[in-house]
Design a protein that fits this description.
Elements (H helix, E strand, L loop, with lengths): L18 H5 L7 H14 L2 H6 L18 E15 L2 E12 L2 E14 L2 E9 L2
Antiparallel strand pairs: 1-2, 2-3, 3-4
Length: 128
């Protein structure tokens, strides 16, 4: 991304001062920050980051984002966040996108776990 452009996650900061720093290797400090950085990674097609931020016990062996993205991600809303303890958290979010020009939304309650000081996406339950 060009310097100074807004972050795809929707926070009022430039990409490099928001999710870009996590994509560059800095550890996300909270489950919400990791969720936002993962949304931005989907929007930008950063498959390596998505795999690296997925817990090794639940991540897929591969994630192919090399084909043209089917979804154009257009917005993220964090509904709620919660810490169950120092190493477990949840983020309820709604992500909006366009697929073939048609508006879609993904609502999920995601679970996160912290190991060795780093947060990982564990899994999520899609809202019906």
């Amino acid at each position: 991304m060009k310097a100074g452009l807004p972050c795809p996650c929707g926070l009022p900061a430039s990409y490099e001062h928001c999710c870009g720093r996590y994509h560059g290797g800095q550890a996300a400090p909270t489950p919400e920050a990791l969720m936002r950085s993962r949304y931005s990674a989907f929007a930008l097609g950063l498959g390596d980051y998505l795999i690296a931020s997925w817990h090794p016990g639940s991540r897929p062996t591969e994630l192919d984002l090399s084909t043209p993205l089917l979804a154009k991600w257009i917005g993220l809303k964090i509904v709620s966040t919660a810490l169950q303890d120092a190493d477990h958290g949840t983020v309820h979010f709604i992500a909006r996108c366009r697929v073939g020009g048609r508006a879609e939304r993904l609502e999920e309650l995601s679970r996160f776990v912290r190991e060795d000081g780093r947060w990982f996406y564990l899994d999520g339950k899609i809202a019906a």
